């Protein structure tokens, strides 16, 4: 795919993926994500989180302090994390969102194949292998290795090339 076409396609896909992730977290469908919803989704993904921690994750991105994350706060948060070059932007919610976006079939784990689709669109071939290796420890797309949310968050927060990739796409 040519660079231009890929970028256009990635943009469109990404908007849809973001909306899908938001809707998945907004289990009551009232247009905002509250702490209880977030905690339940995390539990479904076998990632146990304390109530206070979930409230904290929401607090970090809750611009109007209503203890919920609205769609516009959600979009703003994702945008801030994408363009952040300082590494100081709170990205706990963003990491969860990335996992949900990567888990296209909703199985609760991310396969190398699923991650490849998203990463290729976002980064192109150049950085794809590096990022895959970073997440899975392999860039072999035939690998049957799947990552749970807990494992994904671990690699997302420890990966050394995370920041470089961010600045590359910004
Ligand atoms: Ca809700
Ligand atoms: Ca809010």
From TrEMBL:
Keywords: Calcium, Repeat
Domain EF-hand span(s) in chain numbering: 13-48
GO cellular component terms, A-Z: organelle
Keyword Ligase: no
Single annotated GO MF: calcium ion binding
Pfam families registered for this protein in UniProt: EF-hand_7 (PF13499)
Top-level taxon of the source organism: Eukaryota
Stretches that traverse the bilayer: none
PROSITE patterns, per the entry: EF_HAND_1 (PS00018), EF_HAND_2 (PS50222)
Keyword DNA-binding on entry: no
Span of the signal peptide: none
Gene3D superfamilies: EF-hand (1.10.238.10)
Protein name (record): Outer dynein arm docking complex 3
Annotated organism of origin: Micromonas commoda (strain RCC299 / NOUM17 / CCMP2709) (Picoplanktonic green alga)
